[in-house]
Amino acid sequence: MSVIVPFRGDPAQLEEQLRSLLSQSTTRDYEVIVADNSPPGSGVTERVQALVAGYDRVVRVDASDRVGAAYARNVGAANARGYLLAFVDADDVVGSGWLEAMAAALENHAVVASRFEYAALNPHAAQQGRKAQTEGLIPYRRPAFLPHAGGCGLGVRSDVFESVGGFNEAYRVLEDTDFAWRVQLSGHEIWFEPDAVVHIRLRPTLRGSFRQSFRYGEAHAQLQRDYQRFGMPPLGPTATVLSVFSLLRSFPRLFSRSERAKYVRNLANRLGRWVGSVRFRVWAG
Known about the structure:
Elements: E1 2-7, H1 11-22, E2 31-36, H2 44-52, E3 58-62, H3 69-78, E4 84-87, E5 93-94, H4 98-106, E6 111-117, E7 138-141, E8 144-148, E9 154-157, H5 158-163, H6 175-185, E10 190-199, H7 206-227, H8 237-249, H9 260-280
Helix pairs in contact: 7-9, 8-9
């Protein structure tokens, strides 16, 4: 089994993830591949090389030619020796028993999604409204389409990965949603494995959460452009107008400590969708 960790960020968080991966209780043979997407000349690469050198079953591969998690994941997969591939992010932490649960599930299912947990690595305020992939796959509701799963805890057999062409590098974010849809459209079910737990690290500040949600919003417009030909229902201008009124009506939530973070994410997502609507020439309201 090959565990692929795309990296472009904090080496300290990468080290925490590696320690968790290497402390897994399993008799299976597995490798950990760090696909280093760090910018050349930043000094981070040297830190990653020194970190990886301390672990026998961890290897670093250079994935700096193109920015993006999709590219880094594809580079990692291209260098993998295992038939079973599992993708996790460098800033998260897999739970104990994650690797064994993921590998066992992949013996019976071509594609497997982990269960996400949000309390372990985040303050209470940052967890507001966070329920994605805690009880099953993530439903897609705007507009209604296929469910999807996050790439920060996704397992797939290598032949299936290759048959759909890996991750689409045209996506800067939500490449995992695109991948999950292409997998399903090719005839494969995504299995949700509750025993394969990944502790998710959220953006610690409102600014960081806003920027992330805005980028997600833009990518939702990109998805709508690409998947209308596969039956995704179009959103018209009415949906955009209604979303404006919804944000205005819920504006007082911005001043509520218990609801502020969720409102900021919703606002950023809608703003990103509007910008993406212009960029990709769709109504993504």
